[in-house]
Amino acid sequence: MTTNIPRPLAIMVTLAALAAASLGLTGCATPAPEPDRERPEPTTVDVPVRDPEDPAALLREARRASADRAAALELQAALRYELQGDPDRAAEIVSGLDVDRLRGVDRHRFALLDARMLLDEGRSRAAWLVLSELPDWRYVSELSREDRQLAASIQARVLAANGRWLPALREYILRDSLLSDAARGANRRMTWKAALRVDHPAQTAARPEFANEPILRGWLELVTIARSRYPSLEAQQQAVMLWQRRWEDHPAAFDLPEALARLPELIALRPSRVALLLPLSGPLGSAGNALRDGFMAAHFAALASGGAAPIIMVFDTAGGDVTRHYIEAVDQGADVVIGPLARDAVRDLIMFEPREVPVLALNSSGGMDSDASLIQFGLIPEDEGEQMAERAYADGMRRALVLNAQEAWAERVMASFEARFVELGGTVVERRPFAATAQITQNVAESLLIGESEARASEMRRVLASNLEFEPRRRQDLDFVTMAAEPVSARALKPALAYHFAGDLPVYASSHMYDGSTDRRVTSELDGIRFVQMPWRVDANPLRQAVERAWPEAMGNAGSFYAMGADAWHLHARLPLLATGDPGFPGLTGTLRLGSDGRLQRELSWAVLHNGLPVALDIMAAPLAGSP
Q1: Which of 291, 219, 171, 269 is nearest to 560 (CA)?
Q2: Pairing of strands 480-484, 399-405
């Protein structure tokens, strides 16, 4: 007779029988008691994941897998989320990962994600240190193709965050070969951004050690074309076409960066009539005339190079009512308006709507934002202060002594410097304004606490009743001096620092300290001072030489208006490109980029006086050989 046993109970009986058999039990014998021992962990069966591309499936399988395999699956899921563009979810998984369970190449993968998370937290040096402990990903055979893509991307980002732009450029170039055609566009945009940050690209590309890196050399030569000043759009387009013929197999040959790809469009659509709205008489007359002459000098240089040029209409705005002049210019067929110069007139045009043609205003409104139909182009002191702070901080300076003339422009420079320097993490130890050049020596002595040092020596002489030999000492909590002053006052600073035992302190100054003088007997007193400056003063260029021959006053402070007029000429046909940002327009007043507030931001050059003449400094910090 067969006994029917329910299925669950049958399973239990079968398992019990298997257990009894495994212990050697027969019949109804009672097993002898065994000594207590630790019960083994339940075994798990690791099976392949059905969909290894799905991070959710990987996590589900990890919950059923052994501890070692669970860690590997969780890491795989985190990598998958990273590749899918969800770094937050990847970081969440990694933060709970049992790293000690990872084996072999998984430890390499974990280090990559760890470096990426450190970078996202703003800890770029820590990320660098993590990656520096890893072998070069190119020689780790266990890494998959996707692992290599991720490794190259993270390596490039970390290098870039630490200012190592040339190695970062190499990583992006290597990554390009690992990507599908559909994914290469974004990587090449990053490649271009890294290439733009390489200092002196033309010199770098020409170095013999890069002879076997043609792709890198091609990128750097293209950057040189983008950064160079050409007299006309046609001249720059010709340079691009020559590059394309030379580098016909280069990744960028048929996928040019936007700033260069759109040159034919700019040539086809350039304005045919341009109106200048400038004050040619009255208080602003000299500045207005210099702007006009700089504009026309660039206009004729373009014609001489074979470029086309628009019809120029000039309106004198000295009488006011700039909106009337704007309407008149539009009625006469102007396609773009350059000006006005007066700040109030700029505000009037910002409020005037609708504007039928775009405006490049030659001043800042002083607080009013504008859209792309009215771009504000001003030589404002705050630009200099911010860049003085950024340069000093990048050079390792952390504690500043600030000296500035009691002038409105100098106060604005130094207020901007202090705000940016503190934001970066620096400290302004002391700030000393001065009303006259004669006060500089006294201010330096008081700031350096020389008087306190001498007072201590006097007290020791009194106590010891001895004529001690003594050399005063300055305070030791300063890294550098920064200054905003005209040339006469600036020339008093270096001797004052030397006299008060601080000749070793670096000095960073605004552009105002150098007026373009070539009299070395005077300017040699400024030797060694680093100062921010327009490229007009630092770079050799034929247009400046022609302008200074025609208008000798351009060699002095008026030179900035001539430079601004020349930049306005080049910008009038490039206005549609300004919003793209990179590489910016390499103007004579600085590299120009459009901000979200409608203002052109200027990246200035740096120079140092050497034997009384300005010598250009590197704009970017020199790349480091071993560590950030």
Answers
A1: 291
A2: parallel
Q: Looking at the predicted structure, is the pLDDT value of residue 215 above 60?
A: yes
Pairwise CA distance, residues 468 & 462, whole Å: 10
pLDDT in tens, 280-313: 999 999 999 999 999 999 999 999 988 888 999 9
Beta strands in 399-553 (DSSP E): 399-405, 427-434, 480-484, 507-509, 530-533
Helix (H, G, I), strand (E, B) or coil at 509: strand
DSSP secondary structure, 81-142, as one string: HHHTT-HHHHHHHHHT--GGG--THHHHHHHHHHHHHHHHTT-HHHHHHHHHTSPPGGG-TT
CA distance 389 to 405: 18
538, 607 Cβ separation under 8 angstroms: yes
Same fold, 271-378+542-597 and 381-538+611-616: yes
| Domain 381-538+611-616 belongs in CATH node 2.60.120.200 | no
In the chain, % of residues over pLDDT 90: 45
Domain boundaries, the chain: 55-264, 271-378+542-597, 381-538+611-616
540 strand-pairing partners:
none
Amino acid found at 412: R
pLDDT of 171 reads 94
* Residue range 46-104, pLDDT digits in tens: 545 566 678 888 888 888 888 888 888 888 888 888 878 888 888 888 888 888 888 88
pLDDT for residue 457 = 40
Tokens of 129: 């240190």
How far apart, in whole angstroms, are the C-alpha atoms of residue 537 and residue 452?
42
d(Cα 433, Cα 411) in Å, to the nearest integer?
A: 8
Q: What angle do CA 368, 560, 512 make, to 5 degrees?
A: 90
Gap between the Cα atoms of 244 and 262, Å rounded: 15
Positive or negative torsion for Cα 612, 618, 621, 624: negative
For the ranges 188-192, 293-297, 605-609, which has the lowest average pLDDT?
A: 605-609
The SS3 assignment for 586 reads strand
Cα distances (Å, whole numbers) of residue 310 to 75, 206, 238: 62, 38, 20
pLDDT at 493 over 90: no
Burial-class residue 469 by CB neighbours within 10 Å (0-12, 13-18, 19+): exposed
Q: What is the dihedral of CA 334, 335, 336, 340, to 10 degrees?
A: 20
N-to-C CA span, the chain: 86
Nearest to 615 by CA among 624, 625, 601, 605: 605
Alpha-carbon span 45 to 43, nearest angstrom: 7
Tallying the residues shown for the chain, one arrives at: 628
Distance of alpha carbon 267 from its chain centroid, rounded?
29
Q: Is 19 exposed, middle or buried (0-12, 13-18, 19+ CB in 10 A)?
A: exposed
What are the two backbone dihedrals, phi and then psi, of residue 430, each rounded to the nearest 5 degrees? -160, 145
Q: Which of 238, 235, 201 is nearest to 220 (CA)?
A: 201
Q: Cα dihedral sign for 496, 498, 504, 506?
A: positive
Mean pLDDT of all residues in 404-432: 92
Superfamily, domain 271-378+542-597: Response regulator (3.40.50.2300)
Six token digits for residue 198: 């390489």
